[in-house]
Each structure stands twice: as structure tokens, then as C-alpha cells.
């Protein structure tokens, strides 16, 4: 439970940073390093960030449900 809030905050920062990078940096990275590799890395990064967010929210909701009982 104590790591749930930092996980949600970190995942939110990761997702916001990813959106900024998609707009500003992704085209240059895809041109420099190859589109397939860059887009695969973005998908993996997004999956990890979403999973971390999902875990944090699930733990927080379970903690709230335990408190309400």
C-alpha cells in the first residue's frame, strides 16, 4: 500500500512525458534509429507505464475498500 501513490504519480509522469515525446521527438528518433525499433520501444514503454498505473490504482482501491469495511 505505501508504494501505490508513488506508482500512480510515476506512471502519470511517464505517460505525460511519453505524449510530449510522441509529438516532439518521435519523428526524429524514427528517422535516426528506424521506425520499427522506435515504435516497438514506445509500445513497450507505454505498456509498462499503463501496467504500473493499473497496479497502483488497484492497490489504492483495495485499500479504500478495506477501510470502508
Count of alpha and pi helical runs: 3
The shape is elongated
Largest sheet features: none
- Fraction of helical residues: over 70%
The average pLDDT value, as a whole number, equals: 93
Report the span from N to C terminus: 17 Å
**What is the count of structural domains?**
1
Kindly provide the radius of gyration, computed on alpha-carbon positions and rounded to a whole number of angstroms: 16 Å
Q: What is the number of E strands?
A: 0
Strand/helix succession: HHH
Structure report:
By secondary structure, the chain is mainly alpha-helical. It has one domain. The protein has three helices and no strands. The relative contact order is 0.20.
Features:
3 helices; 0% strand; 69 residues; mainly alpha
Set down the secondary structure blueprint.
Layout (H helix, E strand, L loop, with lengths): L3 H21 L1 H8 L1 H34 L1
In short:
This protein is mainly alpha-helical and 69 residues long. Helices cover 91% and strands 0% of the residues. It is elongated and about 55 Å long.
Amino acid at each position: 500500500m505505501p508504494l501505490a501513490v508513488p506508482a500512480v504519480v510515476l506512471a502519470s509522469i511517464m505517460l505525460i512525458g511519453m505524449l510530449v515525446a510522441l509529438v516532439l521527438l518521435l519523428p526524429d528518433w524514427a528517422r535516426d534509429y528506424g521506425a520499427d525499433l522506435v515504435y516497438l520501444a514506445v509500445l513497450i514503454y507505454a505498456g509498462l507505464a499503463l501496467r504500473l498505473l493499473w497496479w497502483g490504482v488497484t492497490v489504492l482501491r483495495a485499500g479504500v475498500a478495506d477501510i470502508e469495511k
